Fold each of these.
Amino acid sequence: MNRSLPARTGRAAVAVTAALAVVTAAAPAASAHPARPAGGTLILVGGGLKDDNAEIYREIVARAGGAGSARIGVLTAASVPPSQDPNAADPATCSNSACNGAYYADLFERYGAADAQWIPIDIEHVAAADSDAVVAQVDAMTGFFFGGGDQYRYVTSLLHGDAHTDSKVLAAIRAKLAAGAVVSGSSAGAQIASGPDMVTGGDSYQALRDGSAPGYFEDPTRLGYLPGGGFGFFGPGLLDTHTGTYGREGRAVRLAADTGHDRVFAMDEDTAVEVEHAGTRAESVRVLGSHGVGVLDLRHARSRTDPAGWSVTGVAYSYLTDGDGYDPRTWQVIPADGKRRLRPTGTEPVPTDHDAFYAVDDPDGVPYAFSGTARALAATRVQRTATADTYESAPAFRITFTKRGDFRAWTADGSTAASFADLDLAIAPVAP
């Protein structure tokens, strides 16, 4: 779930009544969705997708058929409907489903799509998700983009209740993906691609201290998850978004440990995980964008809770940046062309960071502290271990990063670590 959805600027929002004119009533579909899709491409962005990120937008257009041919369907049901947006009448500041849909449609056309259309579904127009007319609109598209907001609005508008079955529109999108279409999304629009135990909110410190629980909570710091998950498009592991910006690595590790998952893809902002041949034996992963994606491997992790608090050891932490690949079957990082093995030359020690998860109460905190400490350790030759602590205490938690025998790092400039694989990670409460 996003902490906020920025206001959109650009062309005026299309009128809701005009867009909904295509909607006709239809009986709900009852077919349950399969565990995974097959065949197409997923491009899932960790939020904060910048308008000028040509690499990601053009990749979506290319996977949808290329400039001049791509037809993109834009879904923004995670946004509030126009009736709940106090700025709905102002195209410069509005941030609602129709306004955001028009905004992204315009953006995709500027990046070369032959056509981009808002799919007129939101929490006040749930019936549209079972409209044959909207299904026909979806069937005419070659790619899809899910915008940000609150992923639970996607659950309530495109899935059927506790049964978690597909609406007609979602079933049509799933079929398009299986047939080779691209499905993309940012923030909540990426998170909703999750399978079981989709994260619903929470901050890292509270997650480490208190653990997780199923549900959505009014307290945004409490770690929650939805056991039934989202749409189940993404199969290789759990997903998390806005990772470095909001310091979510801790909550990602805790949720995986609590729910029995052995892998998390923790995506930074303005950065995407691209999955080709999604759901098939040929499935492969590539990273695109300006920051990175953490892969947290818990196959050999051990967690425990004692009177001092919760702790975990044996997590393998990899960090992939632009162009790097990942094979989810072999768990191997594949460095991008142009990156070479890093031979550490740094002689400065890596200081302990005292706000590993960028606490909102710390005026001196900085984003990307967690991955920054790990990359600094990768680049130095004077130590094999570095630490970072939580800003919060009672108890404080310490993260210990260790370069063991299978650790590897890669560089693009010869001195700094662009990417690394299999850094050992442990988290434990600190004695007062």
Amino acid sequence: MNSSYSQLGVILAPTNYVNALAFSVDGRYLASTSNDNVVRVYDIGNQFSVIWEHEDSCPPTAVTWMDGNLFVGNMDGDLVRYCPTSTSTIKWIREYRRSTREAIYKADAPIHTMEFNTRGDRLLLCSGADVLFFKKHSESWQFQDHFPRPVPFGEYYNFDTPETVATGAHFLDDHNECIVAYLHDGFRKFRIDTWEYTKNQWGLSNRSFEKIGYSARSPDSKSVVATNLHRGLDWFKITPEKLKKMSTSGEIQDRRFNIPLPVLFINNGQATVMGTTKGYAAIFEVKHGKKIQALKHGGDQTWITALAYAESGYRRLIATGDGNCGQRTKIVIWCEKLGDTSSYKLRPWTVIMKITQIISIVGRNILILLGIAFVVALLFPAWWKVLMGPRMMAYYSLELPRQNIPSTPSVTPSSTARIKEILSSLGDLLA
């Protein structure tokens, strides 16, 4: 297969090491976290402008989207939820939701990665040696438990036992099963409903010379890739019995750096993109593990420390972020068009989603107006009766209760007289 991503734009907002990037599901927004302690959200369709940002007391280290909410993990182990893209038409409601910061959990170590299942009701979080499991109840997220830590295996160099670090956790098709990657200890397959590892060791055989940086699961849950800090990109096939290593794509980084590099599946699982310490992100085809394109991000010594991917309508988007210390960092957006935008037609599902969104906004506004009317009727019942009683009776074609009024010549009151009566009633209420 061929890959033809071209540069779409550059974002210069981060002023320090870019730790993580994440596109919203529709590809409209991009979130970034960096060592300048700021979480930012950019509008891709509006010249990459910053539409929301939040500065914290420590660097945010992980970020992901779910149901329009932004989940952020930081160096202190805090898991926080924001709502930066509120679509309410009422300004003060929108600004209030954007400023809301909901603390979900406090972990014991920095948060490395986060991943939701496809249903969006379960979350895996890697923090130091621990993998934390969360479930959604109603609209709140609740911590369930830590996964049992793995028993180290393999040989040690000079008999030193390396520290256990969880670098990635991925749900499989069965939402009760997941695969966990560890820096020195390979992969473990875990069964959530029985709370035990189904396999003791997968993948690496030597703890000293093979290290898993970051990993990614294919959309069909049949394979997984991992950046090997010493050898490049390792490809594995997931089988019920074991994790079978298929090949290694050579992207060896300079031993002086030895940093974990990000990797993602892209193009419907037909390719992967991997960060490097050589100034570019490398795209590999899945079938043979062959490199098919290099996305030139910066100089030859630039580290690509963050990646994001989204597919929306007629195009695919990749975001690359760098982390060279002592230099101004940037984010580069890459785009691959899937067809002629002038001939692009909305899919039926997209049309249905748009109509549903419009109906939701209109319905919400109607409910707000009804609520305001109810409050007015509750606080000022006499005024409401004088003002709205005749109108409601007339609307439903009902006659007003007859009163014994002395027979006088019929005189139709003017509009001015009606207004005076209403103002007089209002004055009596306020007196």
Amino acid sequence: MTDSNYSLDEIRLRLNELDDNLLQILSERRALSIEVAKSKIETSKPVRDSEREQQLLVKLIENGKSKYQLDAQYITKIFHTIIEDSVLLQQAYLQNLANPELSRKPLARVAYLGSKGSYSHLASREYFGRKNMELVELNCDNFKEVTKTVESGHADYAVLPIENTSSGSINEVYDLLQHTTLYIVGELTQPIEHCILANSDIRLEEIKTLYSHPQPHQQCSEFLSRLKGVTLESCASTADAMQKVEELNRPDVAAIGNASSGKLYGLQTIQSNIANQTENYTRFIIVARKPVEVSSQIPAKTTLIMSTSQEAGSLVEALQVLQRYGINMTKLENRPIMGNPWEEMFYVDLEAHLNSEPMQKALSELTSITRHLKVLGCYPVDNVQPTEVKMD
């Protein structure tokens, strides 16, 4: 349809037809992704084939330019999303085979911090929505209550924020992991989009009190420093802050939170993009009472905690073990050991499958040279990195 004499209604009708065709094609492609996963079981090939993905993108870009006059950025953006979806679908399929008891549970009881609309609540819906699981949502007032709800059996999973690209590690959660009996079974990285939310369309100068969780206060410190005469009040979560503003229903109070969550409380966005960093992400971990089996064909992470002796070079010795076996460390966090002054516990995230030979050898050596060592979990890497495109 290229004739400019078509009416707007006719053009929209054709657009609707094309959109339906796209949905059908995407559905067929998803189904084939599962068939790919089935074939990889027989050959034991890994889910990701970077060389094949790169060749696919290069071919698509070349065809898009020459045949359809589509630019490379447009094509790349669309197919990065399609490839990510395909990878996650295949991982979920293989994980269901490795953990058949979980695939028979379409219902998940999930504990998280705050009320509806909190960032932990949004992360819960995103993570379990990918797995087509119906949720029973259990909101909690603090992180300790979140973990206790799972430990007691009242919830199957807990979703906990562990680190943020702007404000860093969430120490309270790390300290809880030191003592919990729970295992890390998954992870999720979510974009965090902080806004100023109020009951009505007020000016920033009218705000006298601003409610939020301490983390957003920290992540938006540069913007907040420019507000004059504003008192910062801390709440258990961003959702509790939004609920507080809704209940007060005053023109001089506001909250920091997510714009879509604010709509749940009837709040309007007064100012968007207030975080110190425009690329603001929070990594969440999912914990449960039992560990999961991770398919060897899936990229995996292993998280462990360890304490070393107080002798000079003891931590370096432990890290050299990982280097010797070619295990990449993505996170090293130290926290004090409660009740043991001046002693520290180290949390280590590793890009390695727990059952791999290098990881097992490394654990054997680490056990002999550390004072304490515990594996907190081995879990699939859900953050699918975009394929690099190398054009000639």
